[in-house]
């Protein structure tokens, strides 16, 4: 043994090691700064202490998938030079009203720390966080170089907060407000941009509902020569749209306003002409209340289109088909199920390069009327779009055979999210569970990272997932499974699992407690309306001190039941800002 | 077939005749039906009585019915003849949906060939009512009775049976109820947070759906081509694309093929019970020789017999199809109270 050690010390390897550690820090930092992906950077930082330090000094962007997994102080201390922070807060099921309103994920504490430690912060991208108007104002005055604000699915603020941003952020280049629970008090925030302000590159207010002053918008667009992304809201009419486009032919992403106003022929021509000068558009969205007869005005701008978001445009199949003939390069398509199977056939026929398809339901609660897409449309797309790797499909019926066919045609799925809207619905032709469908998915799609299951499912589905889905990172389960065994299969079988969210399934303490160490390698676990009890949660919390185990109870529920459980790893310890409805064990 | 129907389908018919008729109805001696009489006198008690009855017979989506859509006069009209000629059996709750527009109720259409079922509130013949005979003109035969009326007799006449003065209004109520994300959909209780759609999308689409329906065009999804077809006793639903057919004959033969396995089974087990009458009542060309009747639910949630309106109108308004047992459909006429219990 000793002789081996001597040999090691004198070997070329150890000399190399010594040589490596004598690199000046600046050199290492320079090299490491070329690593952009945060996964790579995390790996790099684990090599040795020198590299850890080099990496932290050169890191400019931090991605924090769960804001409670770490504290702002720890982040600021480790990465003193960060310019950009991406933070995600609430569990994803908060989008569907399963999380109490005042749950937490408030950005303010972070802003206070960053204002002190990282005042050169330029970019903040938040998802499912709570942010108040006061926080927005604080942000706008505390960071003189602030450039980019993106808020997705956030809440707690109003358009007054946007006014503060527009007023104070002299270097703003991006304002991206998407699908938030915003208190829309009017469009006057847009007028808060000073007349001298010309730097804007990205402006997205598509999901605000109030009217804005069109003249103000027009002037803003015309003086911001670098504007490349413009997504307006429904208050902008079809008649007004050309006046914007004419000022911004350099746009690469356009979100139109309402597409349904009655146009005179000259107005239509103006619209068509405005679109024809927009040769750089690769992303198109909006088209609220679309009147299909006006769609031809767009055709000239569709040649280079790679992403078409029609998820708020209730088009019929034939109308979509006509439009898609002009979009040969389409890679991503979001539609509403009003296009039906016929529309999806047209997708297949016209968009061979398609990589991502999302089909949203027009009316998710209307079960009686037969609208929407079926297994036939799904198969049709898969037949003609071999590059398809991302699908989100809301439907009212599906068969095992269809899904098996789809994945046979498209074995490269990385994201497979199938939502059969009626809970626990079996295969519509055989009456059997949908186990074989998802079995086919995980067996065939070896690159699968994200899976959402639905329909009538037994434990067999989860056996398949555990056995085959070796690259699975995110799994969403609802109204499925027969026993604890199902969940156990997943916890034991999926090595890369990071996020597991479960609702209304018969999984109890045994399942919960089968994943003890596993949870430390995951970002989070959500279980609601399952069979987990308070005692089970307490046991988990006791055995795994580095996990935060939070329980939310419903009104009137049994004391022993843990209605909603959220478990996540954290280096920051239990959080102190939990509301009374959330109990940390 | 229903040419006059088209004129007034959007409900521009006179209301005056209706009101006249309703006055007459209130004075008609419906002694055998205490509920009815009380309706005329005291609305509160009859409200309860009628409401119970109304909940029994659920042809439309439960909960989708706005308060105006009570069936009273409809029922009365249907059995106007009965009141006169039979033993005044009256069920105000039956056929509650057959209120607006130029649509026909089951029993009327069923018995169309006899020419006796008429929306005659005062029990008179078709000819007399003329414009007032909205809904229950006998199939095909009496064209002069096919006038829609949007205003069913006023509240005061029939107690708790208020008029449905505006089909569009009702439709809006119905749609907005059905599409309101926060309230339960008509057919079953909503599960919180399911389907997993973000609130922004839910709220936006709900608003737009109501908006479109108010416009009266209903383009966003009401141009439905795929119709669910359900059948009594069948284990699952089928879907048909109405655009694939040009007339009722094509549709009926397609449906026959689709559901033949069930029909044959049923026929053999149930025998030909009541068939002779049935062939007259159900569409002769459709499902002939079987004991089944083809019905459809239209945009307003009313259940109609297939075959009364022009094909184009049918494809525009049909939301879903249902193949019902003839006995169920007929029975709605005289013994509606009992049958309504059976249906539910």
TrEMBL record, chain A:
- Leader sequence range is none
The record's listing under Pfam families reads:
F-box_5 (PF18511), LRR_6 (PF13516), Transp_inhibit (PF18791)
SMART domains referenced in this protein's UniProt entry, alphabetically: LRR_CC
Q: GO molecular function terms here?
A: auxin binding
Question: So where does this one cross the membrane?
Answer: none
Q: Where in the cell is it found?
A: Nucleus
COI1 F-box domain sequence ranges: 21-61
Q: Supply the SUPFAM superfamilies for this chain.
A: RNI-like (SSF52047)
GO CC annotations on file = nucleus; SCF ubiquitin ligase complex
Pathway where this protein functions: Protein modification; protein ubiquitination
Q: Which UniProt keywords apply?
A: Auxin signaling pathway, Developmental protein, Nucleus, Ubl conjugation pathway
Gene Ontology process terms (BP)? auxin-activated signaling pathway; pollen maturation; SCF-dependent proteasomal ubiquitin-dependent protein catabolic process
Q: Domain Transport inhibitor response: where?
A: 80-126
> Could you list the residue ranges forming a coiled coil in this record?
none
This one is known as F-box domain-containing protein
Which organism does this record belong to? Answer: Rubroshorea leprosula
UniProtKB/TrEMBL annotation, chain B:
Residues covered by region (Disordered): 1-55, 132-188
Location relative to the cell: Nucleus
Matching InterPro entries: AUX/IAA_dom, AUX_IAA, PB1-like
Q: Where is the composition biased (Low complexity)?
A: 16-32
Q: Provide one Gene Ontology biological process annotation.
A: auxin-activated signaling pathway
Give the multimer and partner information: Homodimers and heterodimers.
Q: Provide the protein name.
A: Auxin-responsive protein
Organism in which the protein naturally occurs: Rubroshorea leprosula
